[in-house]
Description:
Number of strands: 12
CATH topology of the largest domain: Rossmann fold
Enzyme class: transferase
Number of domains: 2
Pfam families: Glyco_transf_9 (PF01075)
Helix content: 25-40%
Strand content: 15-25%
Radius of gyration: 21 Å
InterPro entries: Glyco_trans_9 (IPR002201), LPS_LOS_Heptosyltrfase (IPR051199)
Strand order of the largest sheet: 3-2-1-4-5-6
Distance between the termini: 51 Å
Keywords: Glycosyltransferase, Lipopolysaccharide biosynthesis, Transferase
Largest sheet: 6 strands, parallel
Organism: Thermodesulfovibrio yellowstonii
Amino acid sequence: MISKILFIRRDNIGDLVCTTPAIHAVRQAYPQAKIGILVNSYNAEAIRNNPDIDEIYIYEKAKHVPEKNKFSVWFNNTKILMKIRKEKYDVAIACGSYSPRLARYTYLTGAKLKIGYLPKNVEKSFFYNMPLKEPQKPMHEVERVFTLLLPLGINEKPDKMRVYPSSYEIERVNELLKKERFFGVIETPQNDRKIAFHISSRKPENRWTTEKFISLARLILKNHNANIMLLWSPGSENNPYHPGDDEKAELISKAVPEIIPCRTVRLGELIAALSFADLVVCLDGGAMHIAAALGKPIVTIWGSTDPERWRPWGVKNVLIQGINKKADDVDVEPVYEAIVRFVKEITQ
C-alpha cells in the first residue's frame, strides 16, 4: 500500500511549475496519501499554497546563498534529508533529466521505491530501484515528468499547470498598482486591457533588447486603450550571484512614462502581479510558466531553448523564435501583431 509519496525537483522555477500536473494527478489517484516535495529555496514559492501538497521540504544551493558558509549549507541540507528519512516515504520521484546529484538525493531519502530516469546507454542504477529510460521522442517537460508516474499506475494525459498566489501578496501588489494608477485593478473599464511585460531571461541568447521593448510599448499605447505593467528579475545586472534587470527596467520606464513598473522582490509577488494581467508578453523563463499556470494568454519572444519541450503548456500562446535561435533576432512587428490578435479576442 502506498501512503507517502515524495517528489524531488532541484531545478529552476519553470521546471517546478511543469511538475504540478503530475503532483495533481497523484493527489487524484491517491487522495489519502501524504504528498511531500523537496525543492530549493530559489523555487519554493512556486508551490506555496498548492492544495495537492502536504509538506514542502526546502534545501539550499550554496550558489543561491553566497553569504552563507558552505559547511553551514551542507549541514542544514543534511538535517532536511534526515527529516525526510524519518517520514519513511513509500515512493520518491526524481523529476527531471538524469543527473548524478539528483539520483543521490533520491537515494538518500530512504524511500522504498525510487523512480527516476537513466541516461540512454545505462541499464541499471545503484540509486533507483525503479528506473525508466529517458524518452526518445520529443516531449514537453510536463509530459516527461508525467511519464515518471507510470510505475504508480497513472497513465492519463496531463492536466493544466497550477500556481496559487497568496491573498497577502495579491493585496500588497494590488495596493502598489493602485498607487501607480494601473487602471483596471479597481473598476475596470470595459475597453481597458492589462498587459504585463516580463523582460528578463536567464540565458543571454533568450533576451530581447531594451530598445525593442520600448518600441513595442509605444506601439501598443499609441494604438490601443491598454495599460502596461513592467516586471523583471530584481537586482543589478552587475550582481555576480543573482544578476537582475533593474537598470534595463529603469531605462524602459524613463523612455515610456506611461508604463507601470512593478518591482517584485519575492517570487510570490511576481505570481500575484502576473495574476492581474489579461495578457503576458515575455521571454522564455520561469515567469512564462507561471503565467501559463495562471491561465494567461502569452506572447513569447523565443531564443535558443527547445520550444517543443519548454513552450507554454495548456494556454493560448504565440511563440516567435529568432532566425538564429536568438531572441534579439525577433523584430517588434510580429510581436505587436500577435498582441493585437489577442487583444481583439479579449475584447470580444
